[in-house]
Amino acid sequence: MRSEIVVDPAPHPAWLPDGALAAVGRRRVGLRLPELSGPARDIPGADPDNSAEVASTLRAEVDRATTAHGGGVVDPDDSPDLLLTLNPDRHGFRFVRDGGRVTVAASTPTALLHGWFHVVRLGEAAFTGPDADERHSPAFALRVLDHWDNVDVHPVMGQVERGYSGGSIFYADGRVRDDLSRVTTYARLLAAVGIDRVCINNVNVHAREARLLTDDLPDVARVAAALRPYGVRTHLAVSFAAPMTLGGLPTSDPLDDDVRAWWRAAADRVWATIPDFGGFVVKADSEGQPGPFAYGRDHADGANLLAEAVAPHGGVVHWRAFVYDHTQDWRDRSTDRARAAHDHFAPLDGRFADNVVVQVKHGPMDFQTREPVSPVLAAMPAARLAIELQVTQEYTGQQRHACYLAPWWSENLGFRPWGGEGDDGRAVRDVVASGGIAAVSNVGDDRFWTGHPLAQANLYAFGRLAWDPTLDPATVLDEWVGLTFAGPDGAVHPRVREVLHAVLDDSWRTYEAYTAPLGVGFMVRPGHHYGPDVDGYEYTPWGTYHFADRDGIGVDRTRATGTGFTGQYPAPWRDVYEDLATCPDELLLFFHHVPYSHVLHSGVTVIQHLYDTHFAGVERVREMVAAWESLADLVPAAVPADVDARVRERLAEQLRSAVEWRDQIYTYFFRKSGIPDAHGRTIY
Ligand code: GCV
To answer: pTM for the complete prediction?
Structure first.
């Protein structure tokens, strides 16, 4: 019998438990940090890198680790095992191992902090092995986490829109929290994976949240101060209508001189208060948010208005391309939501200011479990593009299901929009190098940060892929396990490693197997988006349809007979997707409407595939549950009891939900098609 589980009220250490720092903490560490001037906030704009503050964080980190594990801070000239040194160098940091001694050199304290955490991640391996001289720098200049946190609890969306981890770490009781210590702990976790920018409020900017830009700036400055010690810069989502709603102007027309002056003054105030402020994020003309269309202007006009205001301060504007008609008539078969971002943005290429980053959701629809890569990513060579991912699991199990998303993100980042050879074989990760990467955070004030303890792996993996998108997702998972489940001596029980791979490595494909099939998407309960509802969105204005009838299913997006969406891709994909003979199985129903009897490349019919994958998916969840159960004898020695309890509770719900998905999808399509399952399983 299990004894009662005592839950530690402190936030879970995630990937930085003390044990994770054992290898560095046992060493003699030298720091060569020249005396740096006082905190940047005393000298507006003087030191956007916050050198002094981050340098003292680094000193404190080294002290903390060496005190905990018996090492020490030594004179940098006294042959330390690990020397951390500031050196005029290139971007990122340099890691040199020479006869078992390690030197990490970087040009800024933030880069050096990233280098320190690199050594932490390597553990003992940092100090063993052959001599090495490596340079490490992030693939993407801008690595941002977007929080969809509201200051006020929204009547429908709650404190955190699409948040599945409790309340907000920034806001409570309708204001910025007094105690922001948890925000600094968050920044520490982010620094350990190289994330250095956070947008602290929801892109749906309601009246209360709009005021963060003006009346509440002192509170935003407090949040920025809580993030700053770890080199993380603050961004704000702003409302395009702010000149009217906050400034009392009669218009928000981007070409109006008073509107331009209002934004310039707003930006001046922000940077005067927060010298290392990062910039603005904007959702405009999308799902009810105001935008330039009201004035007959386009998104380049809108984005450039804000870009002009932030440019004198070195700020950036992340302008989202998630623009579509959410009041569509389901009877209108000519409108295709998948086309919308490309239709709006591709013609504007070349018109965006240099400090505008056009932020594009990875797929043309909305963070589905499977979608093709957005064609916008191949259509704007003159713009700085960022790819937007969703770490919060809105459509992938809402942190009740274990679903490790790194393999999915990795596929997107590695996709070659021009095929193998076209455009020098560039992949999405190359296209977005200058604009970077952004993702919706999955963090809240839950003890485990992410609701499901295993969802921490997604946040960790996002950071690591934002630094190096070529990393193998299984290797990243292995790193996460090694850090998160490190015992006091830094070691992880080998069975814990094995089981976490068994549970998570393939969990995204497992989730795909028991939910909406073959890229058709949605089929979720409207509004909250959890659990199955095949026709939930079928006759709604949202543009997310599957068109299943008694004969077949899928959306015809071909040029020949459908919406023409395939034509938004360059060759070869425009033709690969157009042709049933070459369209990949996993995206078949995204691009084509086919009879249930259509035979997939895999050799089975669409309907039999749908039946089989749903049963197989549930079986795989059962295996996940059994794998986790097999760790019971290692609780609490190698797996903390509270982690175990929460994971068990979530896995039980995942199994319940997977069975529900299976039975609804299976039964619905049998009833619709009348085609029996070749394996004759129970139909309700
Ligand atoms: C913040 C989806 C979500 C919305 C979200 C929107 C967006 O539609 O369901 O909650 O709004 O994406 O990305 O702006």
So the answer is: 0.97
**pLDDT value of position 9:** 75
Q: Are 70 and 23 in contact (CB under 8 A)?
A: no
In the residue annotation, 366 being an active-site residue is answered as: yes
> Could you tell me the distance, in angstroms and rounded to a whole number, from the CA of residue 455 to the centre of ligand 1?
20
Ligand 1 site, CB within 6 A: 148, 161-162, 203-204, 283, 287, 322, 366, 394
Are the beta carbons of 146 and 359 closer than 8 angstroms?
no
Q: Among residues 607, 589, 618, 577, which one has the least CA distance to residue 518?
A: 589
CA of 459 to the centre of ligand 1 (A): 19
Q: Tell me if residue 394 is catalytic.
A: yes
CB neighbour list of residue 194: distance below 8 Å, 6 or more residues apart: 114, 117, 138, 143, 463, 464, 466, 467
Distance 154 CA to ligand 1 centre (A): 14
Residue 143, phi then psi, degrees to nearest 5: -130, 105
Per-residue confidence (pLDDT) for residue 424, from 0 to 100:
81
Q: Comparing C-alpha atoms, which of 391, 54, 16 is closest to residue 185?
A: 16
What does the pLDDT read at residue 87?
85
Q: Reply yes or no on whether 424 is catalytic.
A: no
The pLDDT score that the predictor gives to residue 423 is 73
pLDDT at residue 683, as a whole number: 79
Identify the active-site residue in 53, 336, 366, 556: 366
Q: Which residues contact 561 (CB under 8 A, 6 or more apart)?
A: none
Task: Specify the length of the chain in residues.
Answer: 684
Taking the C-alpha atoms of residue 398 and residue 405, their distance in angstroms, rounded to an integer, is 12
pLDDT of 8 reads 67
| Regions in the chain scoring below 70 on pLDDT | 1-8, 35-49, 89, 422
Q: Which pLDDT does position 671 carry in this prediction?
A: 96
The pLDDT of residue 6 is: 64
User: Which atom, in ligand 1's list, is nearest to the CA of 204?
Assistant: 1
